[in-house]
Amino acid sequence: MADLVVRYDQIPRFARAMKLAASETLVRETGRALNLIGKSDIQKMKSEQLTGGRLNVRFKGLLNAFKFKATESAGASSISQLDLDEYTGVKMFRIFQTGGEISPRRARTLTVLAPGARTAGGKRKYSMKELRDMIRSGAAEIIPTRNGPVVATPEFKTTKKGKLRRQSRITVLAYLRPRVGEQKRIDFFGNFEANAAEHERILGEAGDRAIGKMIDGEEGGE
């Protein structure tokens, strides 16, 4: 999760509401504003970093794993008790926030799918079990290369006499690596900061609503 900090006092319209509006009303409007900010930030993350950035995520289920959680204002007595967290529920994406090295837990190597094991749309053609079964049956082989072993399907052709003749061309399905280094590819904090203008707009409107409700209440009591 990304622990995000909203600077309420740096937004003039909201800072004015902190001085003038009733605490209960301001807390309620702030809780609503944080929900709107979370939605805006995650949408910005999806459009700019996930589908249009370095990850190029194509599957809706993975996109929907990026979420936010805002404190319920009903259980808070002051805005200092309201928090906003933005996060991904898929563990494999967390390495992309920090960068780092991935190592296998049980096996000796990691199996990294190559383009030959994916469709044109990026969807995987084979599960890990199917790859293992292909190796056992001889439909695929583990072939050593200068850059490390690969799982590949050799192509076979027949001779003029009808005998099988092995060709040198192969289709690489996966790379076997003892570890894989991943660069930082997403940035919750950078995304949050880049959306500051939208935050200011949302919180400014929340402050205006809180002041407006206070004025309406005073006028109604006269």
Q: How many domains make up the coordinates? A: 2
Helix percentage range: 40-55%
Given helix and strand content, the structural type is alpha+beta
| Outline type | rod-shaped
Radius of gyration, in angstroms, nearest whole number: 27 Å
Largest sheet: 4 strands, antiparallel
Poorly predicted runs are none
Percentage of β-strand residues: 15-25%
Query: Can you write the helix and strand succession as a string?
Result: EHHHEEHEEHEEEEHH
H/I helix tally: 7
Instruction: Report strand order across the widest sheet.
Output: 5-8-7-6
Describe it for me?
By secondary structure, this protein is of the alpha+beta class. Helices cover 41% and strands 22% of the residues. It has helices at residues 12-20, 23-50, 60-63, 91-98, 128-137, 188-194, 196-221, and strands spanning 2-3, 66-70, 84-88, 100-102, 110-113, 141-143, 150-158, 164-177, 180-182. The strands form three sheets. Strands 5-8-7-6 form a four-stranded antiparallel sheet. A three-stranded antiparallel sheet has the order 1-3-2. Strands 4-9 form a two-stranded antiparallel ribbon. The longest helix has 28 residues, at 23-50.
Q: Which characteristics define this entry?
A:
222 residues; alpha+beta; 2 domains; four-stranded antiparallel β-sheet; three-stranded antiparallel β-sheet; 7 helices; 41% helix; rod-shaped
